[in-house]
Amino acid sequence: MGKGYRQGRLGEEIRRLIGELLLREIKDPRLSGLVSVSAVEVTSDGSYATVYVTALNTSKDQEVAQKEKEDVLAAFKSAKGLIKREIGRSIKLRHVPELIFKLDTSLEYGRHISQVISSLGIEDYKSEEEPDEEDE
Question: Residue 50 burial (CB < 10 Å; 0-12/13-18/19+)?
């Protein structure tokens, strides 16, 4: 069954609220880089909300980058109480959903797919198959 309208609205409202908290209230030094909340999915009964976090790191070393991502997740987990309190204060809910923080890896996956496609050696498909109207 598809995601309900209420869960979608609640997820977007939580995403917006966490974004504002990142700018104004959360002062954790582990969240000082480029960190954003890409999506929030709320379960159908509203008891859990999965918060997908994107952390853009500047280091090229894989170990350091992974450590930075783990630090970002740890910072969000330590700020969970503040975030839940603000959700309860701003959004009128009987029960504030339990927050689950996960890393959003869609950017790395997209970058990987782009590298695989470029490694195939396929040039511009349109230029090989269809001649331009000017050439005729």
Answer: middle
Three-state secondary structure call for residue 72 = helix
Cα angle at 35 between 56 and 18, to 5 degrees?
A: 155
Lookup: tokens for 36: 């954003």
Nearest to 96 by CA among 24, 40, 53: 40
Residue type, 90: S
| Beta-strand relationship, 48-56 and 34-42 | antiparallel
Q: What single letter denotes the amino acid at residue 100?
A: I
Going by the DSSP 8-state scheme, the letter that residue 2 receives in this structure is P
- Going by pLDDT thresholds of 50, 70 and 90, the confidence category of residue 82 is very high
Cα(133)–Cα(19) distance, integer angstroms: 48
What is the pTM for the complete model shown? 0.76
Superfamily classification of domain 5-105: K homology (KH) domain (3.30.300.20)
**Beta pairing partners, 49:** 42, 99
Question: Residue ranges per domain, the chain?
Answer: 5-105
